[in-house]
C-alpha cells in the first residue's frame, strides 16, 4: 500500500436533505520528518491544517515510513519526541516498532496504538523490508497546561 494511491471521500447533506459525496479526491502528500504524510482532516473544520491540531481539535493523517536501512531513519518519527496530543494510530500495512523509554513493541496491519499521556516520549522504527503505512488521529486537549 502506498499513500499516494489513497483517496479521501467526504460526505455531507445537500440542500434537499439527502446525503451525498461532497468530495472524492486522491490525497495530497508532503514530506515531513523523514516520512510521507497525507493530511486528511482537521477540526475545527476550516482551520488551517497543521500536524498538531489547535486546542480542542483533531488532526487525522496517513503516514508512510521507509525501512530504517532505506533512508527512513532521518527525522522526527525515528527520534524520541513528545507531543501535546493523545495519538490514536492504526497500522494499515507493513510493520513498525514503537519504542518507549522502558521497552518496545512490534506492530503490524490491524494493530492499534493509543499513545498517552500527553508528552510521553516515544519513537518509531521500521524493520522492513517494506514501508509501513499508518493512519493517525491526534487529539489536542482544550487547554494545554505547562
TrEMBL record:
List the Gene3D superfamilies hit by this protein, alphabetically: Jelly Rolls
| Lineage: superkingdom | Bacteria
* A Pfam family per the record: Cupin_2
Xref: InterPro entries = Cupin_2 (IPR013096), RmlC-like_jellyroll (IPR014710), RmlC_Cupin_sf (IPR011051)
Annotated ranges, domain Cupin type-2:
72-136
Any idea what this protein is called?
A: Cupin domain-containing protein
Annotated source species:
Sphingopyxis flava
Amino acid at each position: 500500500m502506498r499513500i499516494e494511491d489513497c483517496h479521501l471521500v467526504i460526505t455531507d447533506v445537500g440542500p434537499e436533505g439527502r446525503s451525498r459525496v461532497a468530495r472524492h479526491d486522491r490525497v495530497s502528500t508532503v514530506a515531513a520528518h523523514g516520512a510521507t504524510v497525507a493530511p486528511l482532516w482537521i477540526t475545527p473544520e476550516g482551520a488551517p491544517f497543521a500536524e498538531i491540531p489547535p486546542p480542542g481539535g483533531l488532526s487525522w493523517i496517513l503516514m508512510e515510513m521507509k525501512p530504517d536501512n532505506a533512508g527512513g531513519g532521518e527525522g522526527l518519527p525515528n527520534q524520541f519526541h513528545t507531543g501535546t496530543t493523545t495519538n490514536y494510530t492504526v497500522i494499515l500495512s507493513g510493520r513498525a516498532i514503537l519504542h518507549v523509554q522502558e521497552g518496545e513493541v512490534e506492530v503490524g496491519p490491524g494493530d492499534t496504538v493509543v499513545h498517552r499521556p500527553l508528552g510521553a516520549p516515544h519513537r518509531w522504527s521500521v524493520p522492513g523490508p517494506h514501508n509501513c503505512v499508518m493512519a493517525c488521529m491526534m487529539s489536542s486537549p482544550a487547554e494545554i497546561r505547562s
